[in-house]
Every structure is written in structure tokens, then in C-alpha cells.
């Protein structure tokens, strides 16, 4: 069993305990991707019960309280009598479960659910303990409500996605069980021994009024991009090496002249990957006529470094959100129930857009390095398109086309969603963040970047083989050898799509980064 398989197996057995404080990024990944069980801490249950007492006292008072004894949004002026309040909460969830389009991925829904549960656990939302416990039970049982692509404007929370989850908690709507089978929610809950929840005052609103969908996708994207940034340094270094570039421009003293921390980390990674390369040493003497490498080689640390610093900012926003209680109205620590605007997704929406720009630019520079490999006027002695018999064979010609198509798509995805706003709810909700839309396009962008880097890795590995008998660095050799376990070396043309997909999977799982780190130690 590989290290990653062992870790995944441990994750599946883990139980994430949700307390009053923030859940961690690791918690989100374990629950979303490894299907970890979830339980509430005693402290969280106590906090939930305390705030619920306050809601129940307010429900008995004649004064209208938003979310407790009034309608919602533009209908907040309607006072709801006691006998209709349970129906009010059910109607809210049913009407707001209005999503449309393709199903959202299971991992996104599980991340969303964990983060909503984390807010419930703060004791600031006013739900009953049994509501939070039922929510945790859904996660533990692996029951995933069907949520659709469209329906959230990223303000007043991810309303439609969260409403579809709340609908399942009521025993209504459609879900998938732990094996992925589609079925009515009532059937899945009965099979898991979970009693459907009869919502009381405030609870329907508390279940749908949060930025959990966009935040969950941000957390998962940040986690993936951390690995992809290491991979980008590795593939860039392999490209520099196989294109007979120089490593002198990555020297630490040159990087310190412009002391961005991300740039320093990227350059350090590239120096370590290139260390002890026989290929680099072969042309490092005084007879070398190369003066400067192209920008896509020479400036790799500056681009990847800027991406690192942007990711660090996004991670700081995510950390703040993970420690937040997002609801409206909210039960304050001193017992007040106050309306607020914390459900607005702007802080998350902005960094989702920033990261889509980062993904597009990292992919763009990677594609440019790949293209240089294929042009005999620029690849320093390699065959055209790295083909075995150019003219008869096309080599990696069309692999670069695939990269180019993806990069073009990533550039379109880099257009910000957060700059848009469409008023809703009869102009009561007249400015929205579109953060959910930003999150959806970022997921596509992360996938696209993974595929572009995979093609660069595949092409660089082929070029390193073609430099024989010159030997690559230990790190580059380890990455190339890991690729060779799945994809054969240079030769006549073969069906290329399966080889690209094999490389994509090695990139997605972190196997290529692991191979490099096993050779030279952990990268920054």
C-alpha cells in the first residue's frame, strides 16, 4: 500500500469532532473526500441548547423577531402567528430548494454540510441540539442530498444548495446513499435509522443562511493548489533542464533582490530539483553560448511565487471564514438576536476569483514551456515534436493542442464572477457576491491546471529520455521514473489520450510530487 493509500485509509476511519471552535482544512478534506464520520462535542451541544432557550423565549413574546415570527427577505414585514410557524419553516426550505442543472459533486456537498454544521455548533444560530445531531448523522451515514449547479447568488448564503440539504433533513427530496444510489430522502433516512426533523422557529432559516458552499469549495481548491504549486516548480525545473537552460538565474541572492516570500520558495524548489543534474552540468562551462533563457523558463519563480502569495492570502480568508458563525439573524453571546450582513459572500468571492486568475496564468506559462520542447528551432537539438520519426510520427504535437485548448478555457474562467451582481427578492437583496459561481469556475480551473501540468510533465520526461546518455537530476529522474511506471518512454506514435490521463492522475493524487520529495526531501 502506498503512503497516500495508507493516509486515505486512515482518513476513512477517522471521526471529525465538531466543536464550538473552527474546523480545520484537514477536517474538511477528511469529511468531504474520505467520508469521515462526524460527531458534535459536548461543549457544542451545550452551546446549541443555551442559544435555543433564547429563541424559544422570543417566540413567546408578542414583538416580531425576524426569522422567528416573521416572513423572510422582502416578506419580513409579515407577522406569523404561533400556529403557522412550523409551516413557515417547512415552506421556507421547500420553496428555497429551487436549484437547477447538473448535480454538484459529492465532495462539495459534504464540505458544505460540515461547514453548516460547524456554524450550528457555535451556538449562535438558535437551532435545537437534535437538529444539529441529525445533520451530523447524515454525514456519518454517507447520505448526500442532491444539490444542483444553479441557485445560489452568494448572498443571504448559498440558499438553494443549503435548502436542498435541509429538505433531505426533513425527509423530503432526493439523496444518494453511501454507495451513490439515488433514492428518496425518506427511504435513505429510514435505512440509516435517522428520524426526519420537524423544524421549529428559526431552524429552517438557520439551515440555509450561510456561505458554506462557496467556502467548502475554496478550502478544497486551496488544498489542491498547494500540491499543484509544488508540481509547477517541479515541471518548470524539468523543462529548464531538458531544454538546456541555466539554473544560475534561480540563485538565492538574485531572488533576494526582490524578496517576495513566494518567489523565494519557488526558486528554492527549482534549485533543489535541478541539483546534481548531469544535463545542466554538461553545458555550464565557459564555452556555453546561452546568455538568457526565455521568460517561460527564466521567470518561472516570479510567476509561481506570485501564485503562492495569492494562495496564502486566500488561505487566510478561508481560515477566518472557518472560524466564523454566519447566520442572520444571529444569537449573540449576551443573548440578543440581531440581524446582520455577515452572510454576504464578498470576502470569499474575491479570493475565489483571484485563484482562478492564478490557475490560468500558471497553466499559461506551463503551456509555453511545453511548446518550446516541440519546435526544433527552440528545443536545442531535440527532434521536431519529440517525434521518433518526424513526418511519419507526430510525437507530442497534439498534446500541446490539448494544453492550448485548456489554457484558452482557463482564461475565460479567469473573468471575475464577483464583479457581477443581479438584484433579487424584490430589491431587498440588491447586491450579491456571486461567490458560488466563482467557486464553480475555480473547480474547473483547478482541474484544467492539473491537466496542463500533466502534459508538461509527460513532455519533459520524454525530452529528458531523449537527452541520454546525459543524466537528469535525482529529483527529475525520480519523477520521470514514476511516469514510466504508467507510460512507456519515447518510441513510435501510440494512442496518446490514455497516457495523458495516466499523467493527470499522477498529478491529481500528488504521486509526482511524492516521487520528487522522496528523492530530495520535502519541498516548500
Automatic annotation (TrEMBL):
CDD domains: PAL-HAL (cd00332). Its main location: cytoplasm. It is found in: Cytoplasm. Pfam families: Lyase_aromatic. Keywords: Histidine metabolism, Lyase. Belongs to the PAL/histidase family. GO terms for molecular function: histidine ammonia-lyase activity. Gene3D superfamilies: Fumarase/aspartase (Central domain), Fumarase/aspartase (N-terminal domain). It comes from Saccharopolyspora griseoalba. Coiled coil: none annotated. It catalyses: L-histidine = trans-urocanate + NH4(+). This is Histidine ammonia-lyase. SUPFAM superfamilies: L-aspartase-like. Pathway: Amino-acid degradation; L-histidine degradation into L-glutamate; N-formimidoyl-L-glutamate from L-histidine: step 1/3. It comes from the Bacteria. Its EC number is 4.3.1.3. NCBIfam families: hutH, PRK09367.1. It is an enzyme of class 4 (lyase).
Amino acid at each position: 500500500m502506498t503512503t497516500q493509500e495508507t493516509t486515505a485509509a486512515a482518513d476513512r476511519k477517522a471521526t471529525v469532532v465538531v466543536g464550538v471552535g473552527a474546523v480545520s482544512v484537514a477536517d474538511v478534506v477528511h469529511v468531504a473526500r474520505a467520508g469521515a464520520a462526524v460527531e458534535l462535542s459536548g461543549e457544542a451541544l451545550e452551546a446549541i441548547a443555551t442559544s435555543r432557550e433564547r429563541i424559544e423565549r422570543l417566540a413567546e413574546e408578542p414583538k416580531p423577531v425576524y426569522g422567528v415570527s416573521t416572513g423572510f427577505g422582502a416578506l419580513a414585514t409579515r407577522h406569523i402567528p404561533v400556529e403557522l410557524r412550523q409551516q413557515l419553516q417547512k415552506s421556507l426550505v421547500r420553496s428555497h430548494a429551487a436549484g437547477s442543472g447538473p448535480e454538484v459533486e459529492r465532495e462539495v456537498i459534504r464540505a458544505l454540510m460540515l461547514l453548516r454544521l460547524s456554524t450550528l455548533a457555535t451556538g449562535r444560530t438558535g437551532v435545537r441540539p437534535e437538529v444539529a445531531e441529525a445533520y451530523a448523522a447524515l454525514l456519518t451515514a454517507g447520505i448526500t442530498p442532491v444539490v444542483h449547479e444553479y441557485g445560489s447568488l452568494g448572498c443571504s448564503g448559498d440558499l438553494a444548495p443549503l435548502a436542498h440539504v435541509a429538505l433531505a433533513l426533513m425527509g423530503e427530496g432526493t439523496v444518494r446513499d453511501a454507495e451513490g444510489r439515488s433514492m428518496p430522502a425518506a427511504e435513505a433516512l429510514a435505512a440509516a435509522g435517522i428520524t426526519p426533523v420537524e423544524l421549529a422557529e428559526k431552524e429552517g432559516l438557520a439551515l440555509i443562511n450561510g456561505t458554506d458552499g462557496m467556502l467548502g469549495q475554496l478550502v478544497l481548491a486551496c488544498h489542491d493548489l498547494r500540491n499543484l504549486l509544488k508540481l509547477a516548480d517541479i515541471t518548470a525545473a524539468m523543462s529548464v533542464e531538458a531544454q538546456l537552460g541555466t539554473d544560475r538565474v534561480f540563485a538565492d541572492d538574485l531572488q533576494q533582490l526582490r524578496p517576495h516570500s513566494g518567489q523565494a520558495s519557488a526558486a528554492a524548489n527549482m534549485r533543489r530539483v535541478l541539483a546534481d543534474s548531469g544535463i545542466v552540468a554538461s553545458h555550464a562551462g565557459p564555452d556555453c553560448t546561452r546568455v538568457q533563457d526565455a521568460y517561460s523558463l527564466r521567470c518561472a519563480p516570479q510567476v509561481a511565487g506570485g501564485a503562492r502569495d495569492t494562495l496564502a492570502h486566500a488561505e487566510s480568508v478561508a481560515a477566518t471564514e472557518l472560524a466564523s458563525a454566519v447566520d442572520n439573524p444571529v444569537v449573540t453571546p449576551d443573548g440578543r438576536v440581531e440581524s446582520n450582513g455577515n452572510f454576504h459572500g464578498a470576502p470569499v468571492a474575491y479570493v475565489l476569483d483571484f485563484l482562478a486568475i492564478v490557475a490560468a496564468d500558471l497553466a499559461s506559462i506551463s503551456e509555453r514551456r511545453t511548446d518550446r520542447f516541440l519546435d526544433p528551432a527552440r528545443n536545442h537539438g531535440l527532434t521536431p515534436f519529440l517525434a521518433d520519426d518526424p513526418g511519419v510520427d507526430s510525437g507530442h504535437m497534439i498534446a500541446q493542442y490539448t494544453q492550448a485548448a485548456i489554457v484558452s478555457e482557463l482564461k475565460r474562467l479567469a473573468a471575475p464572477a464577483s464583479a457581477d451582481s443581479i438584484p433579487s427578492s424584490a430589491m431587498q437583496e440588491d447586491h450579491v457576491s456571486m461567490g458560488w459561481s466563482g467557486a464553480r469556475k475555480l473547480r474547473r480551473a483547478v482541474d484544467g491546471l492539473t491537466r496542463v501540468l500533466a502534459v508538461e510533465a509527460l513532455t519533459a520526461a520524454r525530452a529528458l529520455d531523449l537527452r541520454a546518455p546525459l543524466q537528469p537530476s535525482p529529483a527529475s529522474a525520480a519523477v520521470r521514473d514514476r511516469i514510466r511506471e504508467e507510460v512507456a518512454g519515447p518510441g513510435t506514435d501510440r494512442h496518446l489520450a490514455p497516457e495523458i490521463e495516466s499523467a493527470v492522475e499522477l498529478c491529481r493524487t500528488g504521486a509526482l510530487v511524492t516521487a520528487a520529495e522522496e528523492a530530495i526531501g520535502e519541498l516548500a
